[in-house]
């Protein structure tokens, strides 16, 4: 191993317990022969703010395309979720006392800006609607709740700050259908095995007739894909570098941000955009709170993110492995993005 232990007087126990998951992930990722950091580390308050900016960039077609699909299909999506429940349970529409209402649950809700379209459709169909946003970012979820309280008062909010990647989900029981949302192609930020584990973690909280709406970016021309992750205004670069700023703040790490460059390239064999932070020089970066000093060669990089691109076939296979069966696929005229509705497989 190419790391050394800092002297014993280094306060290795000074970390707050909340940072222990971060510490473990950073230790594992930066001491591996090929360095990496997990994508969930992006989403501190600043990272969540930068991510919202990414979704507004002209090059970043994903968000506006998925939003357009929701705008065109929201009422049909809600109807299809009820239909799936009806087929599995025989239950019809909700009764006037509210029994049998559809609730929405969302993994990685963020500020839930697109979710409002689906919530509004659920409110049109049944009036009051329960919504359970789950996200690692407390600031993002607080903003989501603030906005929704003002714009959709018929929505009952039950927010959860949780990491659905590292922790088992714990969702309250419900006497009607649940429509789970996992949108924004967030599933594409995980490798196959982790993606399957996330789907199974969710699946374990659902019942036959419940549904999942999955948003996925589709395979397309390399230039279009790469531009989406390397924008002219360099917002994606700031987002990527913010991960190092977070480690400096929360772990007392000594990353000099001016010595790392943002790199994004499409790997067609693996069907994924790969994002890296490349060290421009040979250097050692110390992380005293972890008793680590991390050596970098000039040109060596930290792999910070993958963004997998899908085909209708790869979506179906992934869902099948996660315990879901596809019932409907919605896409845009250019076939840039897919929104897939799947039911809990028997
Ligand atoms: N899941 C989306 C995507 O892969 C959003 C996203 C996550 C993203 N991490 C990102 C976008 C990093 C840009 C850079 O596109």
UniProtKB/TrEMBL annotation:
Gene3D superfamilies in the record: Vaccinia Virus protein VP39
UniProt lineage: Bacteria, Pseudomonadati, Acidobacteriota, Terriglobia, Terriglobales
Keywords of this entry: Methyltransferase, Transferase
Gene: egtD
Keyword Methyltransferase recorded: yes
Pfam families, per database record: Methyltransf_33 (PF10017)
Main enzyme class: transferase
Residue spans crossing the bilayer: none
Entry EC number(s): 2.1.1.44
NCBIfam families: egtD_ergothio (TIGR03438)
Keyword Transferase in annotation: yes
UniProt record, GO biological process: methylation
UniProt-listed InterPro entries: EgtD (IPR035094), EgtD_Methyltrsf_superfamily (IPR051128), MeTrfase_dom (IPR019257), MeTrfase_EgtD-like (IPR017804), SAM-dependent_MTases_sf (IPR029063)
Histidine-specific methyltransferase SAM-dependent domain sequence ranges: 23-343
Recorded GO MF terms: L-histidine N(alpha)-methyltransferase activity
Protein name: L-histidine N(Alpha)-methyltransferase
């Amino acid at each position: 191993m190419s790391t050394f232990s800092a002297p014993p007087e280094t306060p290795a126990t000074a970390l707050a317990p909340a940072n222990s998951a971060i510490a473990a992930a950073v230790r594992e990722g930066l001491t591996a022969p090929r360095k990496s950091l997990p994508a969930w580390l992006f989403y501190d308050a600043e990272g969540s703010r930068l991510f919202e900016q990414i979704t507004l960039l002209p090059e970043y077609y994903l968000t506006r395309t998925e939003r357009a699909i929701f705008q065109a299909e929201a009422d049909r999506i809600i109807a299809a979720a009820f239909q799936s429940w009806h087929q599995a349970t025989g239950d019809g529409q909700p009764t006037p006392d509210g029994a049998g209402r559809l609730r929405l649950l969302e993994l990685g809700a963020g500020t839930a800006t697109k979710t409002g379209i689906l919530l509004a459709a659920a409110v049109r169909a049944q009036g009051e609607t329960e919504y359970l946003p789950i996200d690692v970012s407390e600031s993002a979820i607080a903003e989501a709740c603030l906005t929704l309280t003002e714009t959709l008062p018929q929505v009952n909010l039950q927010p959860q700050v949780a990491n659905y990647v590292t922790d088992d989900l714990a969702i309250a029981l419900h006497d009607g259908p649940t429509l789970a949302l996992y949108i924004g192609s967030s599933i594409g930020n995980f490798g196959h095995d982790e993606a399957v584990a996330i789907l199974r973690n969710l699946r374990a909280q659902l019942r036959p007739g419940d549904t999942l709406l999955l948003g996925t970016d589709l395979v397309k021309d390399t230039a279009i894909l790469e531009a989406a992750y390397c924008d002219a205004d360099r917002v994606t670069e700031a987002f990527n570098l913010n991960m190092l700023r977070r480690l400096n703040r929360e772990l007392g790490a000594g990353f000099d941000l001016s010595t790392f460059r943002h790199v994004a390239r499409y790997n067609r064999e693996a069907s994924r955009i790969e994002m890296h932070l490349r060290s421009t020089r040979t250097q050692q970066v110390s992380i005293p709170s972890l008793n680590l000093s991390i050596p970098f060669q000039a040109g060596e990089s930290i792999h910070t993110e993958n963004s997998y691109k899908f085909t209708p076939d790869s979506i179906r296979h992934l869902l099948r492995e996660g315990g879901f069966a596809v019932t409907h696929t919605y896409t845009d005229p250019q076939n840039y993005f897919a929104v897939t509705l799947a039911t809990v497989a028997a």
